[in-house]
Please model this.
Amino acid sequence: MKVSDLVVKCLESEGVKYIFGLPGEENEDLLFSLNQSSIKFIATRIEGGASFMADIYGRLTGKAGVCLSTLGPGATNLITGVADAHLDKAPLVAITGQGSSARIHKESHQNIDIVNMFKPITKWNASIQNPLVTAEVIRKAFKLAEMEKPGATHFELPEDVAKMECDLSPIPSTRVRRAGPDYKSINQAVDLLREASFPLIITGNGAIRKLASKHLRQFVGHTHIPVVSTFMGKGAISDKDDHSLFSVGLQGRDFGACAIERADLILTIGYDIAEYAPEFWNPRKDKRIIHFDFLPAEVYDYYQPEVEIVADISGSIWALNDIVAKEEITFDRSWFLPIRERIIDDFKSYKLEEGDEFTVPGVLHLIRDLMDPGDILISDVGSHKMWVGRNYPVYEPNSVIISNGMASMGIALPGGLAAKLAKPHKKVVTVMGDGGFLMNSQEIETAKRFGIGYTIIVFNDNDYGLISWKQASHTGKTFGTQLSNPDFKKYAESFGITAYAPKTLKELNSKLKQAITGQELCLVEIPIQPSVNIELSEKLDRDLCDLFEFPEKRGQS
Model:
């Protein structure tokens, strides 16, 4: 058989169901081999859309999403989505075509060094220059992409190698057991808990993978330790749980940060520095920290844990649960419950009334009411992302997806397609600004062509709103951020999908319900009043912690 046939057999052996990408001359043999397989090829409108789809598919399934391009501009177009997966710890395997191995050593048409180009944004990558290494390269790409911490890998297939004959079989995947925690580190962590009066947990994206969330919820329920999440750790415990203090992510000091400031011990669980820099929550470098993660802590002046428990996160929390249950280590909840109540009151203050101008936090309140606990919301990047992170309650792991490490505009619309393929029985809603929408709006055609139904919500302020927000906060003025837009309703209808442009609160409620519960591909354009952004900044500039009277240190109860 040809090498391209072997590649496809290896992909089938890895459990690949979909490949997102574009056809090209240099990946022609691979495409025709795919045509004879069980794998469905999702031809997208740009390679960047394909890599975003693979990124989101990997985050939601834990199995590597796969994207495909040809050489040259096809490969360069993949970069942002691959980098997004790399920084957001999503398993992804990128496949690129390449010209004949007889010409890649010299200047030739569309020839660039793809392997070196992908090196800084992948865990590992390689070029298949010999048919005999094909199965090894593919097995390694998937093993490393899916192994904790997950991320992106890449392999290149030159067109002449793809045509070569070979007599190999796929290397079967095997389950790799992750190491358990070191008992000395667990005992050190327990000693720090015994000494603490006001411990607090910060969850990151590692807390919503594997079984970490399940064991974390048990730990929190027994010890009564409050939890603050990063934007990517939302859902590790339910925001309905009284121990949840929702999330941090804004650079201003929000209500949850008041709890972090008061805490005398921080347990970080699956926390990545790229999510939310520690200088925002540990500015004096004085916090006692226990680090739970699959990898050692980054060397960082503002993040120096006393104890690092480097092992399977769920296994580490399970081991800790066993000890705290036996020793009945619990804490008084009274110090943090007023903060939770104040956060909830703040959320309610954004509820829309008839006659109000629409705002992002007001609309998010309506969306949340229409979504079941496990339904999926995907946020693009812009001012609305900050409101999703702050004001959108989450009840289950991986039910809100936010690009945070790379913070890539344009991810949500193609990501919705992948989310629906990954979780077909869930409602999927994508929210984006007008800027992010037009970066990848062409993928509406891809979703329409494959009959994939989800809701696209466009918050329209005719502006790069997040940049305006930051500029105005820094300087009191804005520059270079204003936009003009098409008629989004007509634009969506030109693709043959239903679109709404509600003008009143009654219409907004009605159209959102039709769109979200109908689970068909549709678009809702919502004009928004961005003044709430600056109002929030002004609120966060005040010393919110003065609102709370924290108790003195006390023992366990």
